[in-house]
Specification:
- The chain has 2 helices and 8 strands.
- By secondary structure, the protein is of the alpha+beta class.
- It has a domain at about 40-75 and about 90-140: Ribosomal protein L16/L10 (Aldehyde Oxidoreductase, domain 3).
- Strand 7 and strand 8 form a beta hairpin.
- The radius of gyration is 17 Å and the shape is elongated.
- The model has no long low-confidence stretch (mean pLDDT about 85).
């Protein structure tokens, strides 16, 4: 199992910060079909991995997959039954902050029906509402 983590980080434990003013990347770069976020939220590295596995099972070798997410936010948690104080907890998992309208996944090399079916199956793996779309401004229902 290949969980996503940053290769090199300056500080492993981060302060919480406000990311509301970031530019949303919503244009296709590589593929013809994609999955867009309909709402803001967080996606963990485990959710991205389960999304990758479902797409690989559905598409096999018929399509190329590009993920447009950067897993860069560390989430820390103190162990259970620990008293207050004594610093911040250890890194529990990594996640990615998603803004409304962000392109999450791109597909290329498969036909419309296969892309529609596989992207509809992956919608249930994420913790946010998503919508499928083609490069030519057709929403996949």
């Amino acid at each position: 199992m290949m969980l996503l983590t940053p290769k090199k980080i300056r500080y492993s434990k981060q302060h919480s910060r406000n990311d509301n003013n970031k530019q949303v990347q919503n244009k296709f770069d590589h593929g013809y079909y994609g999955l867009y976020a309909k709402e803001c939220g967080k996606i963990s590295a485990k959710q991205i991995e389960s999304l990758r596995l479902v797409l690989r099972r559905q598409l096999k070798k018929h399509a190329k997959i590009w993920f447009r997410l950067i897993v860069s936010r560390s989430i820390t948690k103190k162990p259970n039954e620990t008293r207050l104080g004594k610093g911040k907890g250890n890194v529990k998992y990594w996640n990615s902050i998603i803004h409304q309208g962000k392109l999450i996944v791109e597909l290329k090399g498969c036909d419309y029906s296969l892309a529609n079916d596989s992207l509809n199956r992956t919608k249930h793996k994420l913790g946010i509402k998503t919508k499928s779309r083609s490069r030519y401004n057709r929403w996949i229902l």
